[in-house]
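Quick sanity check, DUF1858 domain-containing protein:
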Amino acid sequence: MNTIDLNLPVAEIINQHPEVKDILVELGFKPLANPAMLHTVGKVTSLKMGSKMTKISLKQIQQTLEWNGYQVVGGNDE
């Protein structure tokens, strides 16, 4: 099973699982569609941090990723 750690930088997650980018953009992380944003902010921002910045709940991110077949770690201490 593919595992995603919510504490890793978004760019690293997408590098490991390129298909996740479309899922995250659909979820509301629109700036990730811009390669410049992905390669700058994405290198230092985790999904956990991005959740706070975008007001998308960590629970919603975790549920969406799990629904798409990923095991999610690092989200228990929301």
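Posting the structure with no commentary besides this: The first helix runs from residue 10 to 16.
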